[in-house]
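When time allows, look over one protein, given below as sequence and tokens. The question is which stretches look regular and which look disordered:
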Amino acid sequence: MADQPRIVTRDEQPYVAIAATVTMDDIAAAADRLPEVMAWVAARGLARAGAPFFKYDVIAMPDRLQMQVGAPLRELVEGEGDIVAGLLPAGRYAMVSHIGHPKELMGVTTDLLAWADRQGLAFDMTSSPDGERWGCRLEAYHSDPRLVPDMAQWHTDLLFRLAELAGPRLRSDGLAPP
């Protein structure tokens, strides 16, 4: 079950992650590397600043996804080995929260994209020969599988960065001014 989509503003956010290039069928293999990220963070005594996430950088469906599996941090650090460090960009994001199985996220994503289209919103995304290049497209997983083993009860937020506005700003309710 997904909430109503909304627009949120986020500050720049340091993070660490492991990058992967996968197909839709291989996303679970990338997700299996999240414990490595968490162990790296814990071994350095770093403070997480939110839920672990998948960050999709380039999407060429269904053949190839360039993604990162990571965690937000309270401070900027340097990566090492397979761990890369970066900053999630500040800005306005279209967001929707979902309680349910991760398999349902494709439908939730479709609904979020349709909502944004009806609002006249554009995403921070460009088309290229490699696929859709996203400024920031996140799936944040709030549910720890050790504490919530029933995947049908998982809480996930989808956050897609919006393009910078060249024209009039949107109202706080997410609608364009008349």
Observations:
- The chain is about 15% helix and 40% strand.
- The helical segments are 27-31, 34-43, 105-119.
- Residues 167-174 have pLDDT under 50 and may be disordered.
